[in-house]
Amino acid sequence: MKVTYIDHSGFMIELVHTILVFDYYRGEIPAFDQSKKVYVFASHTHQDHFNREILDWQGDIQWILSKDIRIKPTDKIHQVKANSSYIIDELKCETLLSTDQGVAFMIDAEGVSIYHAGDLNWWHWEGENSDGENKAAKNAFLKEMDKLKDRTFDLAFVPLDPRQEKQFSWGMLAFLKSADAKLVFPMHMWEDYAVIERFLALDEAEEYKDKIVKIEHMNQLFTIKEGENHELYI
Asked: Are 169 and 128 spatial neighbours (Cβ–Cβ below 8 Å)?
């Protein structure tokens, strides 16, 4: 299994028979075996998560797009809404409600379980939002995290946004406390990859250090292997 960090919240996952691309909006798509089925996901319409050029990609592709993306569904373009479940070919797709716009994805493909948050995060903005707005954002986020209790993911892609300053870690920590994920890829970092080390330096992050993948640059490739006890490592 291979994971490529494309840029921002964009990732490509290569399985034995399947390619999955999440929230592409710019950057280089790595070369891959063209005989594999491709599934392209877009969590919402924000320009840093969706680029209409994905609809021009050629090949054996299915597109799974949040309903806020205005497009006419076809036999290859599937629109999904929050808190729903879908079967597309042999792929299972579940969704959560984003605390910003659109959905978060929970995917099962070839026996691999994947969580991609999109913009589902604890969006606390000190000095920008009112106390009431920040409280509402917290409650909405934790409501979705409650749905992840007792869930296990092989791969998780979770926001770690440095713009939130002192609150940058809240969403990531809440996810890690709610779900069991073998490997967690931080995203939505705006190319400030030092935020990962800031997170790992926190006392609250100590027990999760072995799960967090250290991303250093765009188009970084990670080859993931499975141990004897089904643990995943790079």
From this structure: no
CA pair distance 162, 147, nearest whole angstrom: 26
Domain span at residue 106 reads 2-233
Q: Of 2, 1, 5, whose CA–CA distance to 24 is shortest?
A: 5
The string of pLDDT tens digits covering residues 166-206 is 999 999 999 999 999 999 999 999 999 999 999 999 999 99
Cα gap 19→26, rounded to integer Å: 18
Number of domains in the chain: 1
SS3 percent helix, strand, coil of the chain, rounded to 5, is: 20, 35, 45
Within 10 angstroms of residue 169's Cβ, the number of other Cβ atoms is: 19
Q: Are 217 and 190 in contact (CB under 8 A)?
A: no
Give the CATH number of the domain where residue 211 resides.
Answer: 3.60.15.10
d(CA 96, CA 121): 11
Contacts within 8 Å (CB) and 24+ apart, 171-176: 171/121, 171/122, 171/123, 171/141, 172/199, 173/204, 173/205, 174/122, 174/141, 174/142, 174/145, 175/117, 175/145, 175/148, 176/205, 176/208, 176/211
Q: How many CB atoms lie within 10 A of CB 53?
A: 10
Across 110-218, the runs of DSSP E, i.e. the strands, are 112-116, 152-159, 180-187
List, for residues 207-224, the tens digit of each pLDDT value: 999 999 999 999 999 999
